[in-house]
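Fold this sequence, please.
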Amino acid sequence: MKSNLKVGLVTFSTALSVILLIGAVLGQDRESKEPYRPLAVLSEVLSRIQSDYVEEPNFDRVTEGALQGMVESLDPYNSYLSQANYTEYKKGWRGEASIGAVISKRFGLPGIVAVVPGGPADRAGLVAGDIFEAISGKSSREMSYEEVLARLDGPVGSTVSVSVVRQRSQQPRSMELKREVVKNPEIESRVIENGVGYLKVRAMPTGISKVLATRIETLRRVGATKFVLDLRENASGDMQEGAAVANLFIGQGLLGYVEGQQYPRQSFLADKTKAISAEPVTLIVNESTGGAAEFLAAAFIENHRGDVVGARTFGIGSIQKVVPLPNGSALVLSVAKFHSPVGKAIQDTGVTPNEVVEQPRNIVSLTPEDDVEEEAPASDQPLEDLQLKRALELLNEAQALPQAA
């Protein structure tokens, strides 16, 4: 038997085992043949590649690409890890330092959801929406989500080369980012006008609800009688912490839940003893709001606690499980999603504010020679914050809002 035919048979067997495994993981009926109809097409494709492709194909690469495409078609947070990558994964291949950005994949390419103020990505001028065309000299289109994260992270003080594409820019820009341990920003809090306590929360790490509770009490002591909770660019943190923050303002009812086909439903219920605020409150979100902050926003809207102002959020909220495969590779597979109180999967739909307000922004060129048309006229003055303005108007207009029970 020719060596390339052996490779083809091994490839087909591997693909078959993965499809069968996915069917089992997703809880397909074992008696049903419906999930496996594509096998005939897969067999034909492999045969045509074997016989008709212009040169002898690299079947290892073909297999890895096919498997990654298959799992990523489910959602962008699934990954296929080759034997080599899975070996590194088990060693803890993501370093302790990062570029200070929340990353997601859409349309096959990784991009920035939000940057951490003062972090390496922020200092380099990167913004939400920027796309990594290549990382460490390798096309990012060939990478799984887990490999993207592993390549961007690394040892403290090390550098990573990236090629970045920005909306409307004609050419990608190459740059090097120095990795560092990036700390979550502190909560920004102050009284801004008419007794409104303003709270800017950029991340939802474990324990943030306790810090926020203290800040609320401090603002009360200096005259705050209502609050704006600004969750723009907040896309990282613990989903359970999002529920804990919601519980500060909502004293009863369902805050949301997490569930999957083989993952038992876990509901997050408000605890009356943990609700500390009955004052009017408005949330602000945007396209860079994700994860725990979205969970919080959905709880507010569907419990009718207060207005949510801004743009539809990004859509992050799933739990992954590592599934080892017989040949030494592995899948990182989403097994559960977080849902709003009425059952909307946050990762699928994001959260649409009840008061939609788009915020104009200037698109700054990555390179001086880029011919970039700006969405708004260039000005030395910052653009008016229309979302904050509307949040304040709603608080001032409100005659009465439901109080936390």
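The longest helix spans residues 3-25. The two ends are 74 Å apart (CA to CA).
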